[in-house]
Amino acid sequence: MTYTYLTTQELSVKIRYDAKTIRNQLKDSVLFEGVHYIKPFGGRKILYLWENIEKDMLKSIAENMIGVALQ
Which of 26, 47, 50, 51 is 20 to 30 Å from 61 by CA-CA measure? Predict the structure, then answer.
């Protein structure tokens, strides 16, 4: 599978969240290392895996829509 690697700033533009919010609130609470982001070559830089993030966002939306439909 081919992945699109994004920096925190690039991800913030795509999902319209402030980069600081991604780093301080989303990373390691809803975005997990090895699933949604990697630290290549054991470094400090973080690269986000866009396809995995998009898949989980869409999954969450679908689950919410099913929940609303069942009410």
Answer: 47
